[in-house]
Write a structure and sequence with these properties.
The complex is a heterodimer.
Chain A (H helix, E strand, L loop, with lengths): L3 E10 L2 E11 L4 E5 L6 H9 L6 E6 L2 E2 L10 E4 L11 H6 L9 H14 L15 H13 L5 E5 L7 H18 L2 E6 L2 H7 L2 E6 L2 E6 L1 H6 L4 H6 L3 E11 L3 E6 L3 E6 L11 E7 L3 E4 L8 E12 L3 E8 L2 E8 L10 E6 L5 E4 L3
Parallel strand pairs in A: 3-8, 3-9, 6-7, 7-8
Antiparallel strand pairs in A: 1-2, 1-4, 4-5, 9-10, 11-12, 11-14, 12-13, 14-20, 15-19, 16-17, 16-19, 17-18
Chain B lengths: L1 H5 L4 H27 L3 E4 L2 E3 L5 H8 L1 H34 L5 H9 L6 H12 L4 H8 L13 H25 L5 H7 L4 H29 L3 H6 L7 H11 L3 H26 L2 H7 L1
Antiparallel strand pairs in B: 1-2
Classes of the chains: A alpha+beta, B mainly alpha.
Chain lengths: 359, 290
């Protein structure tokens, strides 16, 4: 177990800069997610830590030691690949024990460790089978067992769940997190799936186009996105240009078009700074539609439903308010609103956050 | 529904018919003629007597000249196969692993020699290895030797020619095998603690064995059946079994003996294929050409 630190790291492929100067810290024993769309540089960072890529500049420190020039096989890392990369010509036991034979573990000890690892991933008794005889989810567990049996300093997970089908994916993410918690290994998890990131991480690092957009705990990143990109990547958001009307001791009052004055708690305005203009972030799932009049004292306005995207228990509405279209994700209570329905649109100031509007 | 289940499905038989007809007409029937011919008696140059006698087969089984040829053919085939495997693995590995964007160009280069006549490619070695050839010319120009070194018209030049001609088959087979290996396996082995060489030895090499085996079989059989290369590049004593057939049929005009030798070569190489496929499986071959 060790903490991982990247100092002023960059990576270029020819003229393409995959990772711009970044400082990243992965705390000892923590589960940190690198989240972003494909091509944002998250996998490149993972591959640089693993040694499969070398940084163009900057330092990689594991446990306080610079490891830039340490070859891959001496880094003592567990890497779980998206496609599991199990050795098809080896049995499950041989797959899991693969890393042990380079660590001078005796045959008897290795057999015991393999057995223990299979217990940890809850798949005992498959030692003599071949990878092709296991299902995708089972192969995933074997890949995990193979990576943790060597007691790595750092566990690297490269989109390990994305090859699984939806239901299994949700089970496995709970399980993966539980395994990580049990063995307490510093883990770096790469994904483009925001719900995986929110569900599993101690900390999320949101990346876009080779730069770090925001670092924080899941609630922090979700509630106080540091940029428009983060606000949109972690769920759909409505972003509205607003004027700052006044600042209290621990609140900020904004003038929101159509909705009027909205007062936010100061902890929802940390990304506003001293700016006179801001961008209000209203999450689609926090914008409520109702057909009657809005409740007394609520911040609301009138709108027209332009389109309905029916999703079973939820519906995504596209609502026109003035000349702007808003998105609202609401639980369906009875029947969903019809297209063309006139509705009250209610927002709860406690669920909004505000960014500085530099433009 | 019941009658469709019990009805004989004709489609597999229909689909197999063209291949079956082709193999019967082009292989089974001609080879049967050859077998029948091997029992005829050669009376004089190009004069055969229809008979059923075992004189030709007796000669084959008792004459040390033929045994020597069989032994030499198997030995040269084996050496050429091993050398081709060793020489072919590296380029195959390179083509499979390179990040070069125009991989097709490398494969094209591999197939390019097939556009030049096999005879011309073989003859070209005379200009490289001959007494007035490129190598001797260079050595003499550098003053390393006064007399040209004899490299032509011996077993060495025959093997060089055979490897040259059959190497692409080996490379293609190994390449196909390597290309099918998940590119994450070696990195996976590396992160688990294997050095680059260990990762290759433990993962890539065993997974590429089917291609190596298929390529080796092809080269072995092709070498075992060749006669033009020894004719062009070999000396008087550097003949393979195929040359004996050529001599019997073309020079001595003894067709019954030629038929006997042909059938022997077919059985010899055929049994190599059968024994081999029992251990290796031949589905890799279809992969290489599919």
């Amino acid at each position: 177990m060790a903490r991982v630190e990247l100092k002023q790291i960059t990576k270029s492929f020819g003229s393409f800069k995959a990772v711009h100067e970044s400082d990243v810290l992965f705390e000892e024993g923590s589960f940190t997610t690198l989240l972003g769309p494909s091509g944002c540089g998250k996998t490149t960072i993972l591959r640089m830590v693993s040694g499969l890529e070398s940084p163009t500049s900057g330092d990689i420190m594991i446990g306080g030691k610079r490891i830039n020039d340490v070859p891959i096989h001496k880094r003592n890392l567990g890497l779980v690949f998206q496609n599991y990369a199990l050795f098809p010509h080896r049995t499950i036991a041989e797959n899991i024990a693969f890393g042990l034979k380079y660590r001078g573990v005796s045959k008897a000890d290795a057999a015991q460790k393999v057995k223990d690892a299979l217990e940890i991933v809850r798949l005992p008794g498959v030692e003599d089978r071949y990878p092709s005889q296991l299902s995708g989810g089972q192969q995933q567990r074997i890949a995990m067992a193979r990576a943790i049996v060597i007691e790595p300093d750092v566990l690297l997970l490269d989109e390990p769940l994305s090859a699984l089908d939806a239901n299994l994916r949700e089970d496995m993410r709970v399980e993966l997190k539980a395994i990580q918690h049990r063995i307490g290994v510093t883990s770096i998890f790469v994904t483009h799936d925001q719900s995986e990131a929110l569900a599993m991480s101690d900390r999320i690092i949101v990346m876009s186009a080779g730069r770090i957009e925001q670092v924080g705990a899941p609630e922090e990143v979700y509630n106080n996105p540091a940029s428009e990109f983060v606000a949109n990547f972690l769920g759909a958001s409505n972003i509205v240009a607003v004027d700052v009307k006044g600042r209290g001791a621990d609140d900020v009052t904004l003038e929101v078009p159509h909705f009027g004055a909205v007062t936010l708690h100061a902890n929802r305005a940390v990304n506003l700074g001293d700016a006179a203009k801001g961008k209000l972030v209203i999450r689609a799932e926090k914008l409520h539609l109702s057909d009657g009049a809005a409740p007394e004292g609520a911040v609301s306005t009138k709108g027209v439903v332009e389109a309905v995207d029916y999703q079973g228990q939820l519906a995504r509405y596209f609502v026109r308010i003035g000349d702007v279209q808003f998105q609202a994700m609401n639980m369906i209570d009875g029947a969903p609103f019809a297209q063309g329905a006139e509705v009250s649109v209610v927002l709860n100031p406690d669920d909004c956050s505000v960014l500085a509007n530099e433009a | 529904m019941a009658d469709t289940a019990t009805k004989f499905d004709k489609r597999p038989a229909l689909l197999l018919t063209p291949a079956f007809i082709a193999i019967t007409a082009l292989v089974v029937i001609p080879m049967s003629f050859i077998l029948v011919y091997s029992f005829y008696e050669n009376v004089d140059l190009a004069v055969d007597r229809v008979a059923f006698q075992f004189g030709n087969w007796e000669e084959l089984l008792t004459d040390g000249y033929y045994h020597n040829a069989i032994w030499k053919t198997l030995k040269i085939s084996f050496v050429v196969t091993v050398l081709a495997a060793v020489l072919g693995y590296l380029p195959a590995y390179f083509i499979a692993m390179t990040k070069f964007r125009h991989k097709w160009l490398l494969l094209l280069l591999l197939i390019l020699p097939f556009w030049v006549s096999f005879i011309i490619r073989t003859l070209s070695w005379i200009h490289i290895l001959g007494n007035q050839g490129a190598i001797n010319g260079l050595l003499q120009w550098l003053g390393l030797t006064d007399e040209p070194i004899r490299m032509m018209f011996n077993e060495f030049s025959v093997m060089v020619g055979l490897i040259h001609v059959f190497l692409p088959y080996m490379i293609l087979n190994i390449y196909v095998s390597l290309e099918g290996i998940d590119e994450n396996l070696e990195p996976a082995a590396r992160t688990l603690g294997a050095t680059p060489w260990q990762a290759f030895k433990e993962v890539t090499l065993p997974l590429s064995l089917p291609g190596l085996a298929a390529g080796s079989l092809l080269v072995f059989v092709l070498t075992g059946g060749s006669y033009v290369t020894p004719l062009i590049l070999g000396g008087p004593s550097d003949f393979l079994f195929g040359n004996l057939i050529y001599d019997a049929v073309v020079t001595e005009l003894n067709w019954p003996m030629g038929a006997t030798l042909s059938f022997t070569l077919l059985v010899l190489l055929g049994s190599v294929v059968v024994i081999y496929s029992r251990f290796m499986g031949l589905n890799q071959l279809s992969k290489a050409f599919g």
